[in-house]
Write a structure and sequence with these properties.
There is one protein chain. By secondary structure, the protein is an alpha/beta fold. Helix 1 (about 1-70) runs antiparallel to helix 7 (about 270-300). The longest helix has about 70 residues, at about 1-70.
């Protein structure tokens, strides 16, 4: 016994040791990853600054080149430069330069030079001329030699400028150049309007004739800082560096010859980024600790495989490999706007029934791949959320509805054209889909389901959710009806009303039992007819109890009466064992089964006609009579009459109502009567509303009559 205990103890210690080591490694890993993340964020921001700085330099260069072109085009400028006429230049340029300086306040220099590099005139120093005539700047000499435009940063005695130079030609002969220089802080000021950063310029101190002045601060023997930013100045002047300020200075400042004179210096305040990343790291580490504790517990007890399985499966649909309903819910819970397309395979259950579940699953796998391919091509995510329901989801705050109409057409054409081949079957399988689409609703999936349901009902390939599709009011109505029906069943308020059926002499020979619900509200009795509750009861599983209640009450009431009683059943009722068993029980109690008529509505939805015939045969053997209801409407046909051989045929009321005015109704009614008489089947006419209809039908040979002319349905019997 001691060995297992020691083993268990050692296993526990090992698990704890593994957890502790894992926590340490995990913490260090997270710390390193978030440090890398911080550096990446800063580098990304700096890259943006660098790109914008260079774009701005290029833009300003082009702008000032255009300005210099305007200067060169002034009347008399090229001639004055060609003749080195200082006074003429002063007269032309002085009014222009005043306006120019007013627009471009950062301008420091506007200089004209002859073709041999001699300064002729400086607009910023109009009286300059003489002692320095023989001093030539390399920039100008280069311009003379190449006779083309140059631009770049230049360092003078006291300051740095950015200069743009244009050659001047007179009578197609190169005669000199004009040079404009402006404060490079101009670029930084513009950048500061976009980025809230600490910025300045670092230049080589050897280029400055005077190291310490109001614009330049000596950093070391190699570089000087040009900036008015307090935080940058303190960073470079103090021995203890600001730990929250991250300095990047990789953007070179080049002169016209591409020599590097210095760098753009950018300071990033990392305190907020670090604080956010550390908070995220601590949250992740806490989650990691909890998860590893659970993992350690599972490993210790031998359930690591189970945990891995469920962890892997939590967001994935096991059949198709697509994201599942859980993953979709997480996406929908985010604050982003979404475009959601819910898709359902039309009559997919038939594929399962016809070919089996394995083939159905293979169809779902191939359809899932097709949805995934289409979604990837159109930047959607793909989900399978139930058996044959697939969702395409895209994050989007703006959309054009007509674009998605076209997209849905493409989706349906693509999916509906699939030819699915499966080894187990010889024929290829083709499918069709319905779709419901919704745009940025808080209940996107619910709204898409409403649109999909309406599309199916309307036999449309797809439908967009709109407010008028909102079925919440209908859902409330359904809940209210369900509540009413349940209450009626519990309190015996589901009752039969009886409508008389007469012979040709008007004598009542039979009653039809019709279901009603009696409700009392505020002392007032209200009678609910089947059209108000029956469909909802069928859809929500309440109909069976209603049918059974009608059988019990109707047959119990007519046990002691002479008239026949006619009870309505739907075809599917014949497949329900609880209804049939109850019916058989009460038929046997009734005593005179030949006074019971079972009315069956002929419907296209009958799935197993042979089974219907077997049940009818069993009922006949008990002695009851069989009637086909609503004959002549829609699907009811003569071949079924020949097979079923009913005792009664009830002609559909829509034919009887119109018989006085509709010649086709007359022809059809006569045909049914003739057909029934040949088979010795009793005919019953419904909806006999007046004496005129009654008289005409008697002439045609109808055997029995039912309608308001003889009496409305009532819970009272004579």
């Amino acid at each position: 016994m001691s060995y297992p205990k020691r083993t268990k103890k050692h296993t526990l210690l090992l698990t704890i040791a593994v957890l502790i080591i894992s926590w340490i490694v995990g913490y260090l890993f997270l710390e390193q990853q978030f440090k890398i993340s911080t550096d990446n964020q800063i580098q990304k921001a700096y890259n943006s600054v660098d790109e914008l700085f260079n774009l701005h330099v290029d833009h300003e260069t082009q702008k000032f080149r255009l300005e210099l072109e305007k200067v060169i085009s002034l009347d008399g400028i090229s001639e004055a430069v060609a003749t080195k006429n200082h006074n003429a230049l002063d007269k032309i340029i002085t009014p222009y330069y005043k306006d120019f300086k007013r627009v471009y306040s950062d301008t420091k220099i506007l200089t004209f030079r002859s073709k041999d590099g001699i300064t002729i005139y400086r607009a910023h120093k109009p009286n300059f001329y003489g002692d320095t005539l023989n001093k030539r700047r390399k920039l100008i000499v280069d311009t003379n030699r190449l006779q083309q435009s140059f631009n770049g940063f230049e360092v003078g005695k006291l300051e740095m400028t950015y200069r743009v130079t244009q050659p001047i030609f007179h009578n197609d002969t190169y005669v000199g150049s004009v040079e404009i220089g402006f404060d490079p802080m101009h670029f930084i000021n513009d950048l500061n309007s976009v980025f809230a950063l600490e910025m300045g310029l670092i230049i080589k101190s050897s280029l400055l004739d005077i190291m310490i002045n109001k614009n330049a601060i000596l950093i070391d023997n190699e570089y000087a800082l040009i900036s008015q930013n307090r935080r940058l100045i303190e960073f470079f002047s103090k021995s203890v560096k600001d730990k929250d300020l991250k300095i990047k200075m990789d953007t070179p400042l080049k002169n016209h010859a591409s020599d590097i004179l210095g760098f753009l210096v950018v300071g990033f305040d990392t305190s907020e980024i670090i604080a956010q990343n550390q908070a995220s790291m601590h949250r992740l580490f806490f989650i990691m600790v909890i998860m590893m504790l659970l993992l350690g517990f599972v490993l210790h007890h031998g359930f690591e495989k189970m945990l891995k399985y469920f962890t892997k499966q939590i967001y994935t649909d096991h059949l198709t490999g697509l994201q599942n309903r859980i993953a979709l819910n997480e996406e929908l819970f985010s604050q982003e706007g979404h475009i959601l397309i819910l898709n359902d395979i039309k009559e997919f259950s038939i594929i399962n029934e016809l070919y089996g579940v394995d083939v159905g699953n293979e169809v779902l796998v191939q359809v899932g791949k097709a949805f995934k391919k289409f979604a990837d091509e159109n930047q959607f995510d793909t989900f399978r959320i139930s058996s044959d329901e697939f969702v395409l989801l895209k994050s989007a705050n703006d959309f054009e509805e007509h674009e998605y109409d076209q997209l849905l057409d493409e989706l349906h054409n693509y999916i509906n054209s699939l030819s699915i081949n499966i080894d187990k079957i010889s024929d290829s399988i083709n499918i069709e889909i319905y779709s419901g689409i919704t745009y940025d609703h808080s209940h996107a999936l619910e709204d898409a389901k409403m649109a999909l349901k309406k599309a199916k009902k309307s036999s449309l390939p797809y439908l967009e959710y709109t407010e008028h599709l909102n079925t919440k009011e209908y859902a409330k109505k359904v809940l209210d009806i369900k509540k009413t029906v349940k209450h009626a069943l519990e309190n015996k308020n589901v009752v039969p009303f009886f409508q008389p059926i007469t012979d040709a002499n008007g004598k009542i020979i039979k009653y039809e039992a019709l279901v009603r619900i009696i409700e009392s509200s505020s002392g007032k009795k209200e009678i609910l007819t089947p059209n108000m509750f029956l469909d909802i009861s069928i859809e929500n599983g309440l109909y069976i109890d209603i049918a059974k209640e009608m059988v019990k009450q109707s047959l119990s009431i007519f046990t002691s009466r002479d008239e026949k009683i006619s009870i309505n059943l739907l075809p599917n009722d014949l497949f329900n064992s609880s209804i049939i068993n109850l019916l058989v029980e009460y038929i046997k109690k009734f005593g005179s089964a030949q006074k019971i008529v079972i009315e069956i509505t002929e419907q296209e939805s009958i799935e197993d006609y042979e089974k219907v015939l077997k049940v009818i045969k069993m009922l006949r053997e008990l002695g009851v009579l069989i009637a086909i209801d609503d004959f002549g409407s829609g699907y009811a046909n003569y071949s079924h009459i020949l097979t079923m051989k009913p005792d009664y045929v009830k002609i559909d009321g829509s034919l009887i109502k119109n018989i006085l005015s509709d010649n086709e109704s007359k022809i059809l009614v006569k045909s049914i009567i003739h057909f029934a008489k040949d088979l010795n089947i009793t005919t019953v006419a419904e909806y006999v509303e007046n004496e005129e209809i009654f008289t005409l039908l008697k002439e045609y040979g109808i055997d029995e009559f039912q309608g308001y002319y003889f009496g409305k349905p009532s819970d009272k019997l004579n």
